[in-house]
Amino acid sequence: MSDHLSEDVIVEIFSRLPVKPLLRFRSVSKSLRDRIGSPNFIRLHTLRSPKKLTIIHRARCKEESCNKLIYTLHDSEDHLFCNPYIRVTPVEYPFKSIRIVGSCNGVLCVYESRIGINLWNPSIRRKVTVPDPPSSDRLIHGFGFDPIIQDYKILRISDAGSSVYTLKTRSWHEIASPTRRFPDVSSCQCLFNGALHWVVKLTDSYDVCHYRYIMTFDLSSEAFSTIGLPEPSWETSVVTIIKDCLAVISSKCGKSKIWVKKEYDNTNTNTAWCVAYRFNTDPFKGAMRVFQRSIDGYLVFNNFKGIMISNPESRFLRDLRKLRRSSFIVEMNTCEESLELLGLGTSCDHHNEPISESQKKQNK
């Protein structure tokens, strides 16, 4: 191929291919293996890769009379609104914990209590196990990619102090903790504009909330900051991304609002919020959590009815189809199909054997 096509053309073609053929092409020649495995190519391929959806299910296995954690990868968000499991093969989930700290560039950060942290790429089924942090008391973790040094970072906050793990150095280092006293985090992380965001609240000894705000952590400067909420007196527990804008969902007295920041500036945290959607009822009532990123303008949330999909603009609301009757969804994350972690860590294939034919029949 290299005799007939220039290097630039080859990279252009290969960077738009799915992961599976690229993994096969690595065995063709040493030059292809080196090209596909280079950090620059992996980063370019990630930027051009389509969004995928990772759904983790707890399913009942009749053969083994037990519950199993399995996951499915979905090529298009459109599958959510018809049958999301057409031409999708369930695979055994390689961890015991379902707590996904965050997702970035196709890599998911999985936290297992008393076991540790794993960086996991479900597209290529590889994981990197992270050593235990210096202290394990009252942990809060965050995960993202530092665009300045081109490296992944894991954040730990605790009463004893804060620290950051960087993948390239494979080590933890201490950082300055938030200036405010250690808060209660009431949301999952949201990675936006190179910074982690959480909705936090300050409570008294009677567990009465007196103040809510957004805490941020810039992954490059490793500095904490805060953003004021549009209506601190309203119940706000979700920070997410809607149409490429930072957004929060607030509710009070049976009504809800979705606020967005159309202009975001790390140096100016007082940029005005504006109301994007109003609801005379609370469609998120009873929601245990809203998954941290909206999907093509849709919000996916988990309440007592199951997994629900909402389009705030059209007021569309429906439940997400299950893998099968005896299963239920326990976690969902968006991620790119990527080659990140290629050549690092260990394979998950000994855990991720495809589900047997008899189990596939149960899924139908």
Automatic annotation (TrEMBL):
Highest taxon above the source species: Eukaryota
Domain F-box: 5-45
InterPro entries, alphabetized: F-box-assoc_dom_typ3 (IPR013187), F-box-assoc_interact_dom (IPR017451), F-box-like_dom_sf (IPR036047), F-box_dom (IPR001810), SCF_F-box_component (IPR050796)
Segments crossing the lipid bilayer: none
Family annotation (SMART domains): FBOX
Pfam families in alphabetical order: F-box, FBA_3
Coiled-coil region: none
Protein name, entry field: F-box domain-containing protein
